[in-house]
Specification:
alpha/beta; Rossmann fold; 2 domains; 9-stranded mixed sheet; two-stranded antiparallel ribbon; 14% strand; binds S-adenosylmethionine
Length: 464
């Protein structure tokens, strides 16, 4: 039986037997594949010609492993044969591996072929070709050819070229350091319409926003004339949030589809898929979609819609109980990797902010809902805790534009982040006042409840 140990042994002591073994196995798919996959690091005198005949093999996986092994040799004498595979193999994965093998050669002889392959219709091939060509990006011809792809129809290709050759300048205008935020916004609650309040918030002053906006007309605290007007309203707020969010930081939106009940038995109720309808607006304004997290509640805690179906069991009338809400995670567009954001913080802050112990590893967060006497749709504190811990650092400023009873502020305070909350209803702001009180915070900050006028005044002076 051919084992990995035996292959290793042959590689070192009897390479001729290994070549023979490969040739004998040519029709036996599984053993041949095992052999090719197990070759690992090849000896410097390995003769690739003992593999090239397999490039005609019917099994794409065999061809893939042959190309991969030839690539390990980094020998330009195989350039021609691998180029043929890159251009003509019927399987895209094999072609991609061929381009990668050519890339590994780091040979300028491959440049003309690679440039030709930039026209390939498969974007994954083009991306692999770009990767191989970037090694020669100081070569003027290569640079010019790559730059031409800035208008390529594929968005991934566009973004790689943008980042490499046309790095975006953030339109910051803000002089505040990435880890800092304006003092006059720390632990502040402003009562009023968020759209008016945000006009006075400086660009790039927020590290994280987590919010649950009004649920269209499903609850009584907000009334919108139409669904379109509601979405436009949300979009106008989220656009401002984009402006005030720091480069590469997160906006996390909790919504779920809602039902507006029917007016009588002669009519149907209507279901509005808010998370799906608002998503295109967010992407359009520059938010990068990162993740969708499902908040799952216990079935006993939600309204039962099954009574009818349970009785009659007639298809089409099935109505599942909605246990879930969406926690959609977006990031402000940037060319920079997350690591750049993390490196803005000093070692001590990174250490203190680490998420230690058990944590939820999946995108399904099972959390009981919270019911409140004063507000009909409050966040469970656990939801805020998770979002704050996973998406911000100690000392950051977290924002909830639709603060309700201020749950996010409460969690932020405990987790040693600053908060900035806006809420239009006086009774809820009263609630925030009771909840957060005038407690002394971790660094002896106080809670500041302001109306729009006093906030505007502070913003003007930018002091406290
Ligand atoms: C779903 S609730 C948020 C509840 C909150 N997450 C909590 O834990 O209590 C939405 C809140 O947005 C507020 N709101 C609606 N329109 C607003 C606006 N234009 N400006 C500020 N707040 C608004 C409502 O009064 C309501 O309290």
């Amino acid at each position: 039986m051919v084992t990995r140990e035996y292959i290793n042994e042959l590689k070192i002591n009897n390479i001729g037997v290994l070549y023979k073994l490969i040739q004998e196995q040519k029709d036996n798919g599984s053993t041949l594949l095992f052999l090719l996959e197990s070759l690992g690091r090849l000896p410097s005198d390995f003769d690739g010609k003992n593999l090239t005949f397999l490039l005609e093999n019917r099994n794409a996986q065999v061809r893939f492993w042959v190309v991969k092994n030839l690539g390990k040799l980094r020998d330009t004498s195989y350039l021609e044969i691998i180029s043929k595979v890159a251009k003509n193999d019927p399987d895209s994965t094999v072609r991609r591996e061929a381009v990668s093998s050519i890339g590994r050669m780091h040979s300028s002889k491959a440049i003309p072929l690679l440039i030709e392959m930039l026209n390939d219709l498969d974007p994954k091939i083009v991306l692999q070709v770009i990767r191989a060509l970037l090694v020669f990006k100081s070569n003027i011809m290569v640079k010019e050819e790559l730059k031409k792809l800035s208008n390529h129809p594929n968005e991934m290709i566009q973004s790689v070229i943008q980042k490499e050759f046309f790095p975006r300048k953030m339109t910051s205008g803000s002089s505040i350091k990435h880890t800092k935020c304006p003092d006059f916004m720390k632990n502040v609650v402003v009562q009023g319409d968020v759209r008016d309040i945000l006009k006075d918030v400086p660009d790039e002053s927020i590290h994280l926003t987590f919010t649950s906006p009004p649920y269209y007309n499903a609850r009584d605290y907000s009334i919108y004339q139409s669904y379109k007007k509601y979405l436009d309203f949300l979009a106008s707020v989220f656009k401002q949030i984009y402006r005030i969010t720091k480069e590469g930081r997160f906006f996390i939106l909790n919504t779920s589809p809602v039902i507006i009940p029917r007016i009588s038995r002669q009519h149907s109720s209507k279901r509005y898929p808010i998370p799906f309808d608002i998503h295109p607006y967010l992407v359009q304004m520059g938010w990068e979609f990162i993740d969708d997290i499902i908040w799952a509640k216990p079935e006993a805690s939600v309204k039962n819609r099954n009574a009818g179906f349970l009785q009659h069991r007639k298809p089409l009338a099935y109505k599942p109980n909605p246990l879930t809400e969406y926690i959609m995670v977006y990031r402000k567009k940037t060319d920079k990797l997350l690591d750049w954001n993390i490196r803005r913080y000093n070692w001590g802050t990174v250490k203190q902010s680490k998420v230690l112990g058990d944590y939820e590893t999946s995108n399904v967060w099972k959390i009981d809902p919270t019911f409140d006497k004063v507000h009909s749709a409050v966040f469970p504190i656990e939801l805020c805790n998770r979002v704050i811990k996973f998406y911000s650092y100690k000392g950051d400023l977290v924002f909830d534009p639709f603060a309700g009873s201020g749950t996010l502020g409460k969690a932020a305070m405990k987790l040693e982040r600053y908060f900035f909350l806006t809420e239009k209803e006086e009774r809820y702001v009263e609630r925030i006042k009771q909840e957060l009180g005038n407690k002394l915070l971790f660094d002896k900050e106080e809670l500041h409840i302001l109306n729009i006028e006093s906030f505007q005044e502070l913003a003007k002076r930018r002091i406290r």
